[in-house]
Amino acid sequence: MYFLKTPLRQTLTAIAFMTGVSVMSQVQAQPTAPAPAPHGGGMQQMPKMTPEQQSMMMELQKTQQQLQQTQKELQKVQQQVYKDSPELQKQRDALQAKVSEKMSQGGYDADKELKKMNEMVDKYQNSKEKPTQAEIQSFQASQKEFQARQQKVFQDPDIRKMAEDLQKNVKAKIEATGPKGKSLIVRLENQMKKLQDLRQKAMTMMRNR
């Protein structure tokens, strides 16, 4: 479903440390172009892109897709690493509990909000049923609040230290699995750097149009 594609990806990025699913891939590909505007209503159309800009956007999308594929492959290895390492599980759970605790301030329940978002994703992800506008707005509002609180929590030096230690240990365990694990990490890092460079070029190009 279209409405869930971007929020789902962003939400999964935001909760990566909370769930321990994707510690190695915190930098997810963000949308590279604005969503299409509704027809009618006097909406102003976006300026037409030059061939060079179109080529840049295609390269961005291609790199983004490649990065997402690498992340999927790496997640499988990472899940096995966690399964085989009680020490990592304990370290991940400690981080998750601390993040949840610090996010849950002023009557906010991080675990409850995360469960609610995941339930909505599950409901519509593989369904022909369409969400209502109210459900879309509710999902996006919950996501925005969750992300804002998590970003604030990760400014805490203790949380950052715990997260960095976990990421370092997970990376070492993945590399220790053999050549495949090492090559996936190298590929991920290269693709992330390429995507970052392309985004910077695209922003410069758009400013100078």
Task: Summarize the structure in words.
This protein starts with a helix and ends with a helix. It has helices at residues 2-14, 16-19, 51-84, 86-103, 110-125, 133-153, 157-175, 179-207. α3 crosses α4, α4 runs antiparallel to α7 and α5 (110-125) packs across α6 (133-153). The protein is mainly α. It is built from eight helices and no strands.
Low-confidence stretches: 1-44
Oligomeric composition of the shown chains:
single chain
Number of helices: 8
Number of strands: 0
User: Element order, helices and strands?
Assistant: HHHHHHHH
Sheet-strand content, in percent, reads under 5%
Estimated structural class: mainly alpha
Global shape: globular
Major sheet description: none
Radius of gyration: 19 Å
What do the pLDDT scores average to?
77
Straight-line distance between termini = 33 Å
Helix content: over 70%
